[in-house]
Amino acid sequence: MTDPIVLLQILWTGVATSLSFVLLTVAFSLTQKVTGLWNFAQAGFMGLSFYVMYWVLNDLQLPLAVAVSAGAAAAAGAGYVTEVVGLDTLRARKSGNLTFFIFTLILAEFIIYWLALLFGTEPQTLFKSILSPVHIVGGIAVSNWDLTAFAITAVMVTALWLFLGWTKQGQCIVAVSDNAKLAELYGISAKRAYRMVAMIAGLFICAGMYLVGSRGGVTPNSPMELVLTATIATLLGGMGRVFMGALAAVVLAVIQSFSVLFISARWQALLLYIFLFVTIVLFPRGIRLPRRRIAGPPARPTPVIPTEAAQKG
Amino acid sequence: MEYILTMGVLISIFVILASSYNLVIGYGGLASVAHPIFYALGAYGASLLAIHTGIPAPLAIVFGGLVAVVASVLLALSALRVSGDYLLIASLGFQLGILQVIKNFEFTGGAGGLSAIPTTITGPLRTPLFLLICLSCAVATVWLVSSIVHGPYGRAITAMRDEELAFSALGRNAMSIKVVVFAIGCGIAGIAGGLYAFYFQYVSPEQYEVLQSAAILTMVVLGGMGTTWGPVVGAILLIAVPQGITFLNLPPSVMAPLQGIIFTTLVLIFLFVRPAGLVGNIGKTKSAQDQKALPEAAGKGGAP
């Protein structure tokens, strides 16, 4: 049997590694929840954000804070422009799902090709060295990168939760995600909500790419794999359930980490695709945990909003 | 001249791919993006059989097509239970999973690809003969797809696509039609893969990645989904135009991304300028085209 310390180390490393996926999944899942789109263009925004940070840090030699701000502005700006110029136009035309799929995928590839042209296809890291000081806590190696990743993820996810639940703008976004047409009847602009979500997603993308790029090499093509991981986590968590998607990203990364005990590392990537396929075919609405029944008064009937036709009738 | 003939071979192969994909997605309404994996399975199946048994190329190509048919039936029976976005992503997972398998096995050549595929035609007439063969296959594919969709079975296919519930209520088996359409389309893609492998004598997993899915899908959509000639026009345009810069003798590190940029720019422009496709709705007014755009051809629903 494997040493418990080794198992704990694998668990810790798996969870720490998953945090970049968590941020990227939140961006993808939130966009999917509010706009109803599988926005693969986010792969392009991920690459754009990373390479802007890389350029500002390494070529312009500016401080990290400036680089991260530039990366966030690039991802949020690209998301906003895509919403205004591309997606709004397609929505106005009532384009089909395939058109949106092609547009987002091709836009991602368009950005990726530009990045390949400008920065080459060799892996790049944000910092010259990706070695991070390590502390031994109870026999487990905990790196500074791990702690940074936990801090960034905790702050961003909590901030999003507070924003969606406790601010007027956040509640407008939730209302649009529940029913855009009904929300518009109440004077909430769906377009504004979509644009705001594009910018929020940009911030999460930047944070995620900061973590990815400060731990390992990134090539222009890497974000495509990252967005697929986000897709799988979104599906596993259940569409429309952003924070469950984030949890699914953690579970996926931990399973992948533990899989090294049973299968060769080169087959690890295959696990993701098996998860993707099986999830869609068997659990298209995500994995839902059974709800515990709590004794109490009977539930109130759901209020029915009379439709226009019913009122006329 | 050799280069132009090679381009002709490549365009013919992509006409086969786009037309067969049009049968699946345009007429059948099955939003799968895994077409390149059947192209890959055909290429690898034919190549491996020829390398290890030395059987003649035509038989190996037919075998490649059969491998694609078997794989497509397996995918169809499991994944066609879902539709729309779900099928799109399930098929993507299937494609990337099989590619991962191909990359990890040694007998498929791994990530480096499979070379030493036997030469079938040699001599100075090799390329013109291959062009003739591929062109004939392309014409045969367009004819076959057109015959299927304009016959009684084609009417059943489009009825199933347009109103599956009503179709099933009439006692017809929608699932069997879906599986057959999917298998025919994917089998043809497998044959295209075999043709590619025997001409270029090298196949690698990276040729069948997500971008290839987007490329074939784009050829169909921009040419005109659900039309006979749309995929042909789309394939010719999107293969030929990016190749135009080959004559500039740029270094490979610049050439490949630049061709990609030209390709994606073309797609983005056409997506907004001619949303109904180059061949679709010819003769109709612009506003009518805009209204029709893609929602009906590309599946119901659409984003909000």
Q: What does this entry show, briefly?
A:
The complex is a heterodimer of chains A (313) and B (304). Helix content of chain A is 71%, strand content 3%.
Describe the structure.
The complex is a heterodimer of chains A (313) and B (304). Chain A is globular. Chain A starts with a helix and ends with a helix. Chain A has helices at 4-35, 41-59, 64-92, 97-119, 144-166, 168-178, 180-185, 190-215, 222-237, 242-258, 268-282, 308-312, and strands spanning 134-137, 140-143. In chain A, a hairpin with a 2-residue loop joins strand 1 and strand 2. In chain A, helix 1 packs across helix 9, helix 1 packs antiparallel against helix 10 (242-258) and helix 6 (168-178) crosses helix 8 (190-215). Chain A has 313 residues and is an all-alpha fold. With 304 residues, chain B is mainly α. Chain B is built from twelve helices and no strands. The model of chain B is unreliable at 282-304 (pLDDT under 50). At the A-B interface, helix 3, helix 4, helix 9 and helix 11 of A face helix 4, helix 9 and helix 11 of B.
Relative helix content of chain A: over 70%
Name the shape of chain A in a single word. Answer: globular
Rg of chain A from C-alpha positions? 21 Å
The share of residues in helices of chain B is over 70%
Instruction: Compute the separation of the termini of chain A in Å.
Output: 71 Å
Rg on CA atoms of chain B, Å: 19 Å
Mean pLDDT of chain A: 86
- Output the number of helix runs of chain A: 12
Number of helices of chain B: 12
Overall SS class of chain A: mainly alpha
Overall shape of chain B: it is: globular
* Low-confidence runs of at least 5 consecutive residues of chain B: 282-304
